[in-house]
């Protein structure tokens, strides 16, 4: 595989740069870190969306060129979740499957057990409550 034949998006999709964080104070010593923190949170979401878009473009470029797909393990968790939010047809099938497998590997996608366990616990609690209530009424 020739690297110069790939899109520049392929290289940028696998690099992650965390947003800058800073602390600013007024003359009276008041910190406005909360405002900066909120801005940093927004920056992190924007950064993840940009990385997800770059990954999507790199995946389509790789699909068109028949090259290897970008490495999903290099995506940050927020970027991986942003890629997962895309429609299935928005990614090549191989890349879509790779993203799903990486998210499952990291534990970002709930398994069937994770989804149904809370429901089962609630059902047991409800049935126990009904049984206790009936026992108190009959007893």
- Low-confidence segments, given as residue ranges, are 1-7, 9-16, 18-22
Radius of gyration: 23 Å
Instruction: Give me the secondary-structure category.
Output: mainly alpha
The total strand number stands at 0
Strand content: under 5%
What is the overall number of helices?
5
The profile of the biggest β sheet is: none
Could you outline the blueprint of secondary structure elements for this entry?
Layout: H1 8-13, H2 33-65, H3 77-84, H4 93-106, H5 112-138
Protein model, in words:
With 139 residues, the chain is mostly helical. It has two domains: 3-108; 110-139. The chain has five helices and no strands. The chain has helices at residues 8-13, 33-65, 77-84, 93-106, 112-138. The longest helix has 33 residues, at 33-65. The model is unreliable at 1-7, 9-16 and 18-22 (pLDDT under 50).
């Amino acid at each position: 595989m020739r690297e110069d034949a790939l899109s520049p998006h392929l290289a940028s999709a696998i690099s992650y740069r965390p947003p800058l964080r800073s602390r600013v104070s007024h003359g009276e010593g008041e910190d406005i870190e909360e405002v900066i923190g909120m801005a940093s949170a927004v920056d992190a979401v924007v950064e993840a969306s940009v990385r997800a878009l770059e990954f999507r473009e790199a995946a389509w470029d790789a699909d068109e060129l028949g090259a290897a797909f970008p490495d999903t393990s290099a995506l940050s968790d927020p970027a991986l979740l942003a890629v997962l939010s895309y429609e299935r047809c928005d990614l090549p099938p191989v890349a879509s499957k790779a993203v799903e497998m990486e998210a499952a590997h990291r534990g970002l996608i709930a398994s069937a057990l994770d989804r149904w366990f809370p429901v089962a616990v609630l059902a047991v609690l409800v049935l126990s409550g009904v049984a206790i209530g009936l026992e108190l009424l009959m007893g």
